[in-house]
Amino acid sequence: MPPVPRPSRAYLACQAAGWGVYAVGNVVLFANWGAPVGRTALVNALYAAWGALATHAMRRRILREDWLRLPLGRLVAHVLVASVALGIALTLMLVAILRVFRLLPPEAPFWVVASSTLFNMTILSLVWLAIYLGVGFVRRSREAEIAALRYDLAAKDARFGALQAQVNPHFLFNSLNGVRGLIVEDPPRAQEMVTHLSALLRYSLRSGEEKTVPLGTEMEAVADYLALEKLRFESRLDVVLDVPPDATECRVPPMLVQTLVENALKHGIGNRRAGGRVAVRASRHGAHLVVEVENDGPWIETGGGTGLANARERLRLLFGDDASLSVVAGSPDSALVRVTVPA
Amino acid sequence: MRALIVDDERLARAELRRLVAAHPSIEIVGEAADGEEALRLVEGLHPDLLFLDVQMPDLDGFQVLERLDDVPEVIFTTAFDKYALKAFEVSALDYLLKPIDPKRLAEALAKLTPPAPTSAPRQVFVKDGDRCWFVKVEDIVLLESEGNYTRLRFGKEKALVLRSLSALEERLGDGFFRAGRRHLVNLRWIEGVAPSVTGGLLLTMRGGHEVEMSRRRAQAFRERMSL
To answer: Cβ A173–B79 below 8 Å, yes or no?
Structure first.
């Protein structure tokens, strides 16, 4: 059997207020009919105390048997039986008290008084049970709702983490291989490349900490990335970066532009023996920032297309419908990807 | 040994050249910057060994091998490629991860056996989905035509290759016999020959496969074997 939790303050306050109002109301009503106030007050105080005790025992039973989890049919049956049982308990006490204090109406037959009291007390018990269980149900559904929200939030967080773009390991090791070669061929350039690689790795490792970064910061990482790719592509890669000062403060998810540029190199220029040009352009249009990445070479939607799909999903999680990522031009010799985010 | 380096990055080729310089038994006879060039140079230079980058524009390393009639020894080089690494692990092919560790290079080179001088193809490269093999020509038991594809049986394995049976027949040469429209058999792997109900011959290959031969092909077979 589950342990019965200690009654909450709210429960105690409600019990006290409910039975208090019931008792005071009775005294006032009876006083209007000319009943002796002292005696009816005493009777009602005793009776209300008994009612509070009896329903408190009922609470114990409800919690023990976990009525909130019962199927509806069984719950209704339990409630009906319980209200009659409570009604009987209340009636017995009330009749006993009335007898002791000689307040039973002398003209009415005893069984009429007893049965009408039983009927009233059963209805009263039913009301008590309805209020008690109703509050329980509302509270439980709120808790379930909160749990679901928490779960949603955690899932969203986890999903966002998984979607977080990282430096592509293939690129990383190719760059390291290039640097190893450069150490012999061109030591100053090798040093420069180690600096670019460090900056990019640091940026990538920190990218999980913040959901968005200023576009200016992202573009520094893109520049590091492109410097390293130039090592691989040599004269085959031509770069154009056009980001006006008013756009650098706008916030974008970290590694977003980098992912698009990487995609442009991998699927566009990487497949052209002659190489080509990649251009990154940003501009503000009212409440939105538009970033375009254009590359020579055909547009190829690769198997998974996970880079772009992840970027799109990240934008959706962050900005909902206020952001978009679309492939604008898919001509045979150039491709353009456009991202719009709130500025 | 004469080796060819295939890699789309100049710096990577230069770096590998420097590493190989420590091994006087290996002579670098050429460098290819993409798959097409690699095919041309292999056909022209007949190297004994390929250092082959997996990821290249147009033709990747695997595609290069699939197009070669005569596949030399191969050491793959790759930076990081989940799919390629999986194929390597499945098939226990030798590969080097970039940047290349000189010790690993020495180990890979130590495993190579000096080539026997021969004009016949030594091995073919077969890739079927995630799995790939270098198959010694003498280990091929049987080839079966499957439309545009051919099923190769070797050891306990079988694999589909995108080549017609006739193209393979031309390439594999003397040790094989065309047993019918659909079958090419390795003569060394024939275990038993029995007359068939249709008046031809029924070949039983080592490993249990049976190949039926028409009367006409059986006649050619008898002539070939009596020589």
So the answer is: yes
Q: Do B18 and A169 touch (CB under 8 A)?
A: no
Residues of B with CB under 8 A from a CB of A: 9-12, 14-15, 18, 34, 55, 57-58, 79-81, 97-100
- Peptide bond connecting B99 to the previous residue in cis, omega within 30 degrees of 0: yes
- Closest alpha carbon to B12 in B85, B108, B99: B99
- Write the ipTM: 0.75
How close B117 comes to chain A (CA, Å)? 35
Q: Which residue from B11, B15, B58 is facing A271, i.e. has the nearest CB?
A: B58
Three-class SS state of B83: helix
Give the chain B residue whose CA is nearest to the CA of A172. B79
pTM (2 d.p.): 0.66
Q: What is the pLDDT of residues A190-211, one digit of tens each?
A: 999 999 999 999 998 888 788 8
Query: What gap in Å lies between CA A64 and CA A5, rounded to an integer?
Result: 10
* Tokens linked to A168: 């592509």
For A174, the closest of B14, B79, B100 (CB atoms) is B79
Helix (H) / strand (E) element for B95: namely strand B95-97
Alpha carbons within 13 angstroms on the beta-carbon side of residue B75 total 24
pLDDT tens readout for residues B112-137 = 877 666 666 778 888 888 788 888 88
pLDDT band per the 50, 70, 90 thresholds, residue A153: confident
**Residue of B7, B13, B15 to mutate, testing the A interface (most A Cβ within 10 Å of its Cβ):** B15
SS3 of B184-211: EEEHHHEEEEEECCCCCEEEEECCCCEE
